[in-house]
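Lab intake sheet, docking and co-folding queue.

SAMPLE TYPE: protein with bound small molecule
LIGAND NAME: 2-acetamido-2-deoxy-beta-D-glucopyranose
LIGAND FORMAT: SMILES
REQUESTED OUTPUT: full 3D complex as structure tokens
PRIORITY: normal
SUBMITTED BY: R.K., bench team

The fields below were copied directly from the construct record.
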Amino acid sequence: MALCGLPEFTLLLLPLLARLSAGDCLCSEAALCQPIRHRPDFEVFVFDVGQKTWKSYDWSQITTVAAFGKYDPELMCYAHSKGARVVLKGDVSLKNIIDPTFRASWIAQKVDLAKAQYMDGINIDIEQEVNCSSPEYEALTALVKETTECFHREIEGSQVTFDVAWSPKRIDKRCYNYTGIADACDFLFVMSYDEQSQIWSECIAAANAPYNQTLTGYIDYIKMGISPKKLVMGVPWYGYDYICLNLSKNDICTITKVPFRGAPCSDAAGHQVPYKVIMKQVNGSVSGSQWNKDQQAPYYNYKDPAGRFHQVWYDNPQSISLKAAYVKNYGLRGIGMWNANCLDYSDDALAREQTQEMWGALKPRL
Ligand SMILES: *[C@@H]1O[C@H](CO)[C@@H](O)[C@H](O)[C@H]1NC(C)=O
Ligand SMILES: *[C@@H]1O[C@H](CO)[C@@H](O)[C@H](O)[C@H]1NC(C)=O
Ligand SMILES: *[C@@H]1O[C@H](CO)[C@@H](O)[C@H](O)[C@H]1NC(C)=O
Ligand SMILES: *[C@@H]1O[C@H](CO)[C@@H](O)[C@H](O)[C@H]1NC(C)=O
Ligand SMILES: *[C@@H]1O[C@H](CO)[C@@H](O)[C@H](O)[C@H]1NC(C)=O
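RESULT FIELD (auto-filled):
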């Protein structure tokens, strides 16, 4: 039972938590239920959202799997056999965590769940709006600090990470204490995608993660005093499909105005598409794959059965390699993606090649 910072009077809660005690180890060898202690020099941080595609991942690279799908003991055993960590997803309503007692019991529950499932830490993914001078602002930093202390104490070698937006500049009205949070955990996973969640200029379709915009985010995090070694770059393995209200000759696709957290337009006008779907569609499209030099990203236009033009922006090995080169040149902690399930893991020869190239693009080339 993890009792990190839990005030004594909450001992009343304990019978509830006790049910989550460690179960039997289901791995072929008991040693595989041991948490991973090795600290890799370079992180390849993978989000997995379920099912069995993980069997086809490139395990020669993976260091951490954030298990956002249903818990799969087989995945845990396999990851451990490859020396990779498997971590929980952590999300909680920020209104609740203002109360230190609630925070402590939330943390205790997560540590117990991690222990019962032989997991190696937690990835805290809170994308909620926070006002700068609000109790939530302080409470969030405290949550990360207390979670890290408790995990590190209770599970040797465990890892606690926190997901942040592509830029620290109040994206989506998230005012977080980034330096405090970075200090308080092992590293930040920077979600360098959904970068059009707030479009302040013209309402037109654009790249999910334009090269310059992506780099600006890292420059700003580093300028705040956050070490590059505390930053893992997240790249998208999905794109956005937008319906064009109008598609100009030079491929400017005007989109519907869908406001988001104060901005007049957003990527919510489009819908997300996994790379595997994009790869099936791109060759048959009106334009074929095009390269936008300003954004250093590929896109294509297609016509739907109703006769409307769509523009699809995505990332491919070419755009990802450019970002991976930045990861290496600026000494970031590592790279990762949302999410590993987006690729085509079927036996089809072309799909295999495309999938291999996407994994390969994570490796910074010399
Ligand atoms: C932040 O402050 C604004 C204005 O005071 C308020 O409307 C909004 O609900 C607040 N947001 C949160 C998440 O507390
Ligand atoms: C951020 O958090 C750290 C650690 O709790 C604290 O020392 C610092 O004052 C906070 N910074 C801001 C701007 O709130
Ligand atoms: C659509 O684009 C065409 C070509 O650029 C332009 O002539 C036309 O005015 C645009 N229509 C609207 C409704 O914006
Ligand atoms: C699409 O085009 C590319 C480049 O020409 C080619 O390598 C690939 O085999 C094509 N894919 C399909 C599904 O036809
Ligand atoms: C991207 O950044 C580079 C270096 O700062 C600059 O030279 C270039 O003009 C920028 N490109 C765009 C499209 O903003």
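REVIEWER NOTE: The two ends are 47 Å apart (CA to CA).
SIGN-OFF: pending second check by T.M.
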